[in-house]
Amino acid sequence: MATYFKLYNENPNERQIKQIVDILRDGGVIIYPTDTVYGFGCDITNQKAVERVARIKGIKLEKANFSFICYDLSNLSEFTKVTSNQVFKVMKHNLPGPFTFILNANSNVPKLFKSKKKTVGIRIPDNNICRAIVKELGNPILTSSVKSKDEILEYLTDPEVIKEEFDNLVDAVIDGGFGKNVPSTVVDCSNDNVEIVRQGAGELEI
Fold first, then answer.
1. If you write DSSP's letter for every residue of 15-71 in order, what string do you get?
2. Alpha-carbon radius of gyration of the chain
3. DSSP state for residue 199 in the 8-state scheme
4. What pTM does this model have?
5. What per-residue string of b and e applies to 75-103 under the rule 16 or more CB within 10 Å gives b?
6. 8-state DSSP, 82
7. Residue 63: exposed, middle, or buried by beta-carbon count in 10 A (0-12, 13-18, 19+)?
8. Residues 152-197: tens digit of each pLDDT
9. Interatomic CA distance for residues 117 and 120, integer angstroms
10. Cβ atoms of residues 174 and 129 within 8 Å
């Protein structure tokens, strides 16, 4: 059974954040709130945990389009190659916020995904809970949206329903209130241009 944590975005409980990070360090998989939809997450440096998320989602790891949640832009150089000042300025202006920026990956990323991945999605959500987890962990966490089997709702928004559905598949569910049913806006910057490839919750300001 998954451990259930109730946290508040305005002021996440430090003791509980540390407990969640301990679960991640032990190779655990969590479900947590962002500024858009709820996400599956794990420590990106833990290969077995990354593979577990892929299994839960029913996708092959080498084909997965997982993104990373970072605390701020200081993590970028560890995983990406941002060569354009314009791209960096756009990211700085719009983050934290409901955006996924597709950037060119550096050589660290293929090792994590056991694939020839050339790009990676980076998120810095405007949500204190997931950012506090990343900050305490000391490196980004994986993110992949929690989809619904419902034909009307694309994403699961109620953390109690999420707990019921994934209780035996994950190690912790973090209740940060109701999630949204609109995902992040995806912005492709891999060609040093800024191109919106999926309009979601965020209105990009350039």
1. HHHHHHHHHHHTT--EEE--SSS-EEE-BTT-HHHHHHHHHHHT--GGG---EEE-S
2. 16
3. -
4. 0.94
5. bbeebbebeeeebeebbeebbbbbbbbbb
6. -
7. exposed
8. 778 999 999 999 999 999 999 999 999 999 999 999 999 988 999 9
9. 7
10. yes
